[in-house]
Amino acid sequence: MKVGFVQMDCRFGEVEKNLEKAIGLISRKKADLWVLPELFNTGYQFVSKREVADLAEAIPGGPTTQRLLAVAKERRTSIVVGLVERSGKALYNASVLVGPRGLIGVYRKIHLFYEEKKWFTPGNLPFEVYPVGYKSEKGGTLRARIGMMICFDWIFPESMRTLALLGADIVCHPANLVLPYCPDAMVTRSLENHVFTITANRIGVESRGKESLRYIGRSEVVGPGGEILCRASDKKEETSVISIDPKLARNKRLNRFNDLLKDRRSLFYLGRG
């Protein structure tokens, strides 16, 4: 299975331009699964709730999701992106998974970071895992199991552990990272759950009349053994595509005696979870 990320800068509020840039970057290479950054089409540093509402879109009826559905069908690929979702009166920092046959899944960010708490409704959907089909090099269609989380979710081990327990092979992680820790922490997250992770971060600086936010780049694909399969720079727009075998994430054994998930002793954990 060929998986890739798009690392890009974006102009705040210029939804159509950001969307077309992302599609242009995707079009340069072939992949079965693409991951794009958090809020890739709007930018991140909002200054008012009204601004958030003006840039929010319905899923799947909004123009961004509709355009991506068309791209996924045309290019026979699956795509995960982050965007602002409007659902009734609520505004969510969301990610969407689309494929050649249509909308596959939606995730709403559960762990809100910093000023996000001023703008967004906390996510109200549970973590889920979705089957995604792809063509084998030997012919025939295979399936990978895809989970989603967004940016700051990484700092809560429960996020990825929940997706691992649900059977995820690959965790897609749209992000707008400003703290320096995540790229290295995702090595541990992948290792402790024995899953592939794809973090798609942005680059650039946003300063909209308040403190500047500098995005750290370093998008990456990490393997289930904690190996960094590819990692982008901290300043350039980049796409990267590599081949992986999702089935490698399904063996949770470390040795003849230890299994990462079966050895959990939840009776002794806080919350018994």
Q: What is the topology?
A:
Blueprint: E1 2-7, H1 15-26, E2 33-35, H2 49-55, H3 63-75, E3 78-87, E4 90-99, E5 102-108, H4 116-119, E6 129-135, E7 141-148, H5 157-165, E8 170-174, H6 182-193, E9 196-200, E10 203-206, E11 213-216, E12 220-222, E13 228-231, E14 238-243
Parallel strand pairs: 1-2, 2-3, 7-8, 8-9
Antiparallel strand pairs: 1-14, 3-4, 4-5, 6-7, 9-12, 10-11, 12-13
Helix pairs in contact: 5-6
Gyration radius (Cα, Å) is 18 Å
Number of strands: 14
CATH superfamily: Carbon-nitrogen hydrolase
Strand order of the largest sheet: 5-4-3-2-1-14
Query: Any idea how many domains?
Result: 1
Structure description:
- With 273 residues, the chain is an alpha/beta fold.
- It has one domain (2-272): Carbon-nitrogen hydrolase (Nitrilase/N-carbamoyl-D-aminoacid amidohydrolase), CATH 3.60.110.10.
- It is built from 6 helices and 14 strands.
- The chain has helices at residues 15-26, 49-55, 63-75, 116-119, 157-165, 182-193; strands at residues 2-7, 33-35, 78-87, 90-99, 102-108, 129-135, 141-148, 170-174, 196-200, 203-206, 213-216, 220-222, 228-231, 238-243.
- The strands form 3 sheets. A 6-stranded mixed sheet has the order 5-4-3-2-1-14.
- Strand 4 (90-99) and strand 5 (102-108) form a beta hairpin.
- Helix 5 packs parallel to helix 6 (182-193).
Q: In brief, what are we looking at here?
A:
With 273 residues, this protein is α/β, with parallel strands linked by helices. Helices cover 21% and strands 30% of the residues. Strands 5-4-3-2-1-14 form a 6-stranded mixed sheet. Strands 6-7-8-9-12-13 form a 6-stranded mixed sheet, covered by helices on one side. It has a two-stranded antiparallel ribbon with strand order 10-11.
